[in-house]
Structure formats: C-alpha cells, structure tokens
Specification:
Radius of gyration: 29 Å
Shape: globular
Number of domains: 2
Largest sheet: none
Distance between the termini: 53 Å
Structural class: mainly alpha
Helix content: 55-70%
Order of helices and strands: HHHHHHHHHHHHHH
CATH class of the largest domain: Mainly Alpha
CATH topology of the largest domain: MetI-like fold
Strand content: under 5%
C-alpha cells in the first residue's frame, strides 16, 4: 500500500480511522451512514406540524365528505342511512330534483370561468409589464392596483351593489351623462349581470396575479433582452420570444389557480346578484351551499362537490399537459 493512498480507503485487517487519525468506532460509522442516507426521525419531526394540519384540515374533511356523499345525510335528523352511489346517480338522472339546478349551476360556473379567466390572465400581465418599467411614482401605482385585493368579499359586494343599482347607482348616472343607457339593470338582467360579476371580480383580484407576474418578470435576466435588441428584435418579438418563455412556470401557476378560483366563485354571486335573474347567475358552489345548508341535503351537496372537483382535476390536468415542454423545443 502506497503512502499516497487516501484516508477514505481501508486496508484489510486495519481498523477504520477518521480523517484526523482517530479510530472510528462502529457506532460512529453507523451514525454517519444514517446521516448520509437522510434517515432518522428528525425530518418527520420537522414535518409533523404541517402533516398534522394537512391531515386535520384536508385529508380528514375529504374522507368525511366522501362518507357523507354515500349517505342520505340530513344534519337535523339522527338517522343517516347509507345509500351508496344514489346521490351521484341522481345528478345524472332527468327525474331527479337535484340534477337540473346543479347543471344549471355548472353552466353558470362555466360562463363565468370562460369569460373571467382570459381577462384575469391578460389584464394583470399588462399591469405587471407597466409596473416593471421605471417611472416616477411606480410604488404608489403598485399599491393602488393591489389595494382592492385586501378587501373582503362582503365589502366589495356592498360597494358594487350600490354603484350598480339601477335607480341610484353611480354607474348608471355617469352613463347617462355621456350618452349611454342610464337604466341598465346590472343586477337583475342578463347579460348585464354577467358583465357586472366579471368586471367586479377582475377589478377586485387582478392585483394578486399582477404581483405574481411582476415577480416572474423580475426573475428574467436583462441580458436576454439586451441580446434580443442586438439581434434586431422589436418590442413584440422580445415579448413573444423572451418574456413569455421566461414566464412559463409563473403562467402555469396563475392559469391553474385562476381557473380554480373562478370555478369556486360564490360570494360575488350570492351578495351582488343573489343568483338573479332567476337562477341564471347561481354558480355550482352557490347551488351546493343551497342544497346542503338550506335544503338540508348534505349527501347530495357532497356528491355535487366531488363532481365539481373531478371536473377541476381534469381541467387542471389538461392545462398542465398544454404547458408541458415538448422534447426538442427551445425556450
């Protein structure tokens, strides 16, 4: 054995030694092997607070909700008989009293999601691009656009119910002054009610998406823009070939969270239009709440929730497939 042999090697019949020449005991060697494998209870102890909260507030409610969906569950009565998949079958039966209202709610949810999501993707991106540029008063501008997001839905709904009131609302009053119709029933007619709900939601929540976009924009290296300018790329080409590819992970997050938030819209419809006219703006979540809490049919409400969840899972999967980078593609 040459003298140049490293200390990590061992010679048969010779006791293993540490780097400082001290003989390593079997227990110390086992401890080092365990630490290298990442074993032991320490990781689980650090994760325990999160796991307790996750199990208590996510896993357990999901399991309990699934159990409720399999029973004729009226929380005002002691008996809750098992009915199996009957609550799910009723949602797809034309003879059921729960099917038509639920699918009308799904239709309303689809309308709201289809028209609100593109606006909540494009408008915050435009705001973020403006906020990312350098100009005087930029911080005030950022604060003003984010400020509505900190308001609660009850505050937003009360404010806009007054502004959109047909008779005394400021929107109709100012519309009349500029020659537009001044008697639009924003809260009790369609499509005006949809314009109201979508417009209020975009005004209220665009600040959150704009901040996320802004963080993604600031993570793109300025050197990429400089290289694009040197190559002769104009503003649109830089946006298409530098900004959008750089925002891919952020855009995926925003698309999925915005779709989920739009599909779960409840407060605006409940407090601003109250589902009017008729039940045209009563979303799926609105119908689930009505079925479970007012009609005392928690089993059907739970089944509706799982059907909506399944639709959102499928839609989220399609979005992730659309954003998946193809092999051989260049950013």
């Amino acid at each position: 054995m040459s003298s140049s042999q490293t200390t990590s090697g061992t010679v048969p019949g010779r006791r293993a030694t540490s780097t400082d020449g001290v003989a390593a005991t079997p227990a110390a060697s086992a401890t080092r092997r365990t630490s290298r494998r990442g074993g032991g209870a320490a990781p689980w102890l650090f994760m325990a607070p999160y796991l307790v909260l996750f199990v208590g507030f996510v896993v357990a409610p999901v399991i309990y909700g699934l159990w409720i969906s399999l029973h004729d569950y009226d929380y005002t009565l002691p008996g809750k008989p098992f009915v199996g998949l009957d609550n799910y079958a009723k949602l797809f039966s034309s003879d059921s009293v729960t099917a038509a209202p639920f699918w009308q709610g799904m239709k309303a949810t689809t309308i709201f999601t289809v028209f609100s999501v593109p606006l909540l993707l494009a408008v915050p991106l435009a705001v973020a691009l403006l906020m990312n540029s350098k100009f005087k008063g930029r911080n005030l501008f950022r604060a003003l656009y984010f400020a509505p997001y900190v308001l609660g839905v009850a505050v937003v709904a009360s404010l806009w119910r007054f502004l959109l009131d047909t008779n005394i609302g400021l929107v109709n009053q100012y519309a009349g002054k500029i020659g537009l119709p001044d008697s639009t029933a924003w809260l009790t007619s369609t499509p005006a009610a949809w314009f109201a709900l979508i417009g209020v939601t975009v005004w209220w929540t665009l600040g959150f998406n704009a901040v996320i976009y802004l963080a993604g924009l600031q993570d793109i290296s300025p050197e990429l823009y400089e290289a694009a300018k040197i190559d002769g790329a104009n503003t649109w080409q830089r946006f298409r070939n530098v900004t959008l590819p750089g925002l891919r992970p952020v855009l995926l997050f925003i698309v999925i969270t915005t779709i989920i938030a739009s599909a779960n819209m409840f407060g605006q419809s409940y407090l601003i239009t109250q589902g009017a006219p008729g039940n045209q703006t009563r979303t799926a979540i609105y119908e689930i709440a009505e079925t479970g809490l007012r009609n005392f049919d928690m089993g059907s409400a739970a089944a509706m929730s799982f059907v909506l969840t399944l639709c959102l899972l499928l839609l989220s999967g399609l979005v992730m497939l659309a954003f998946r980078e193809r092999k051989g593609s260049t950013r």
